[in-house]
Design a protein that fits this description.
heterodimer, A: about 110 residues, alpha+beta, four-stranded antiparallel β-sheet, B: mainly alpha, Ammonium transporter fold, about 0% strand
């Protein structure tokens, strides 16, 4: 099994989610995140005092998939999250040793 | 025996309630500007003034401010301690004296609360409470006598004897609080990490909400200071509206030129600046004059807030830049723009009155500023030596809400709402809890 993690622009969530659903992904975990890559931050001004805000709001999306699906899922996310502008985010894949479904106790691919 | 006017009484009582609302309004105005870990402390610094000052006012404050003068215009006597001798039949002008007592009380509350913005994020709550007691007693009550006590030339030395014009408290409230803020910021010292760390306002909607409440309440502050429901009250009302508007425009103009953006914080700050500047002048200038007062105050104060960076004092929420500078602008402009139509006599430099009134205005502003700065510096130092004004650096990093009040303003994220936190006291009865969950299980 693999864990596909994606950091995306928040407003892209709906598109990514429906693309993954169409592909057949059953569930995912989404959390709010902040960070920066090449996009860097922006400047804010409060009573004449300038602040550079380095961390930009993002969403982190996590999907557990069976090994053969990993490449396709990465592809689906990368396509649906893309705007072509700087700050689109990243997608990466990590191996997963074990998965268990809490309700039934099923393990491995059964639990996905 | 003087007649009580029902209309005047109604307006002064309503105005008193309006002015009271300014203090919670100020709490939100300030609260939104601090970091989220300190917002409750900021609110409480204002709120505690609503608790301490009324008690002192009834005990001896009103007497020091408004009893028959006891020392050449410096303070009143102690004849009305505990409001002795004042009853339901007592009359002050055309209103019951209790109405006047209530109206003036609200001024005392908000004035000391204004100072809190200068020492946001780092003061011990107990030390602040002690300071509030000392400051209103030794600074505000006498200065209110100087400016607001009228007794046919035998009242306070600034208002009644010198003849400086300060309708609603440009000197007694704003220059007074602003100079005190500067002194206290110097005594307490800078926030840890000032000018190095991010100290952005955590909730600008609160700031705008607070500015709105202040503006609303300020109509009672200025227009109510006519202590009558008459033409002068209405004149002060329209002046308060238009000066505030002009000050927002002035502040935003500076921002657009300097920073390229008209900011929300700038709009809210501009409004308060205009309100401050028109406070002394609202019954001395025409509505056109009020526009000029507001505009100049907006321009001056939006630039003055940069002074703290140049001189290196951490007046955290710009009490000096807004209240001291705005108060001085409004108080001095009376010397230029006062018109006999409003004042009933004295005229400013631009209306043929010569420099005499301007001189009086300068003396009044200077005297209150120096007295407030010096005495506040001494009082602040006493409190600092006695109990320590600052929390530790660790506590400052943790945040005052948790350290000083054992509370958190906001639930961030999902984890904090779950049983990650458990009720410690009062203890739940373990047997009953067990039975209850068993019953739930049966039903399920």
């Amino acid at each position: 099994m693999k864990l596909v993690t994606a950091v995306i622009k928040p407003f892209k969530l709906d598109e990514v989610r429906s693309a993954l659903e169409t592909f057949g992904v059953q569930g995912m975990t989404v959390s709010e995140a902040s960070g920066y890559g090449r996009q860097k931050g922006h400047t804010e001004v409060y009573r004449g005092a300038e602040y550079t805000v380095d961390l930009v709001p993002k969403l982190r999306l996590e999907v557990l998939v069976d090994d053969p699906d990993a490449d396709d899922v990465v592809d689906v996310i990368a396509k649906s999250a893309q705007t072509g502008k700087i700050g689109d985010g990243k997608v990466w894949v990590t191996p997963v040793e074990a998965v268990i479904r809490v309700r039934t106790g099923e393990t491995g691919a059964e639990a996905l | 025996m003087p007649e009580i006017s029902a209309g005047d009484t109604a307006w002064v009582l309503a105005s008193s309630a309006l002015v009271l609302l300014m203090t919670p309004g100020l709490a939100f105005f300030y609260g939104g500007m601090v970091r989220s870990k300190n917002v409750l402390n900021m609110l409480m610094m204002s709120f505690i003034c609503l608790a301490i000052v009324p008690v002192l006012w009834v005990l001896y404050g009103y007497s020091i401010s408004f009893d028959t003068d006891a020392a050449s215009g410096l303070f009143g006597g102690l004849g009305e301690v505990g409001l002795r001798g004042i009853g339901l039949d007592s009359v002050s002008g055309t209103i019951p004296e209790y109405a006047f007592v209530a109206f003036q009380l609200m001024f005392a509350i908000v004035t000391v609360a204004l100072i809190s913005g200068a020492i946001a994020d780092r003061a011990k709550f107990g030390a602040w409470a002690l300071f509030v007691v000392l400051w209103v007693s030794i600074v505000y009550f006498p200065v209110a006598h100087w400016v607001f006590a009228f007794d046919g030339g035998d009242g306070g030395w600034i208002g009644d004897r010198l003849g400086a014009l300060d309708f609603a408290g440009g000197t007694a409230v704003h220059i007074n609080a602003g100079a005190a803020a500067l002194a206290l910021a110097l005594v307490v010292g800078k926030r840890t990490g000032w000018r190095r760390e991010q100290m952005r306002p955590h909730n600008l909607p609160f700031v705008v909400l607070g500015a709105g409440l202040l503006w609303f309440g300020w109509f009672g502050f200025n227009s109510g200071s006519a202590v009558a429901a008459n033409g002068l009250a209405a004149g002060a009302f329209i002046n308060t509206a238009v000066a505030t508007a002009a000050a927002i425009l002035g502040w935003l103009a500076v921002e657009v030129v300097r920073d390229k953006h008209a900011t929300t914080l700038g709009g809210a700050s501009g409004a308060v600046t205009g309100l401050v500047a028109i406070t002394p002048a609202c019954a001395a200038v025409s509505p056109l004059g009020a526009i000029l007062v507001g505009l100049l105050a907006g321009l001056a104060c939006s630039l003055a807030i940069g002074l703290k960076y140049r001189f290196g004092y951490d007046d955290s929420l710009d009490v000096v830049g807004v209240h001291l500078v705005g108060g001085i602008v409004g108080t001095l402009l009376i010397g230029f723009l006062a018109t006999a139509d409003f004042t009933g006599g004295p005229e400013g430099l631009f209306f043929g009155g010569g420099g005499e009134q301007l001189g009086k205005q300068a003396v009044a502003a200077g005297a209150v500023m120096v007295y407030s700065f010096v005495v506040t510096y001494i009082l602040g130092t006493i409190v600092h030596r006695l109990v320590g004004f600052r929390v530790t650096t660790d506590d400052e990093a943790t945040g005052l809400d948790q350290v000083e009040h054992a509370e958190t303003a906001y639930e961030f994220g999902t984890a904090t709402g779950t049983p990650a936190g458990r009720l410690r006291t009062p203890q739940a009865d373990p047997d009953r809890v067990a039975t209850a969950s068993a019953e739930e299980g049966v039903k399920a």
